[in-house]
Amino acid sequence: MIKQRGVTLIGAIFVLIIVSLLAQYLVTIAGVQRKTSLLALQTARAYQVANASLEWGSFYVINNSVCPASSPTSFSRIPGFTTTLTCSHLGNYDEDGTLRNVFLLNA
Fold this sequence. Notes:
The protein is α+β, with helices and mostly antiparallel strands. The protein contains 1 helix and 3 strands, in the order αβββ.
């Protein structure tokens, strides 16, 4: 009868390789999920920065009836984000005898 030595070792190495590949796959998936969440957060922040600059521009135009003196105006209140607000006076519009100013705001 011939003794078979090392068969268990080969099986153990095979199982270790499979487990390590599975662990590597799970780590990769976790990293992708973290990056996706971070990009979603950055997108929301960028939207809020642009929206805040548009709100500021609207407030300025409504209260002063002119574009800000330094157009384009840059905003960088949130670290890592800068938005530029441009304001253009498109002219006047007569609405039932009332003269209205028309402005175009871009952020």
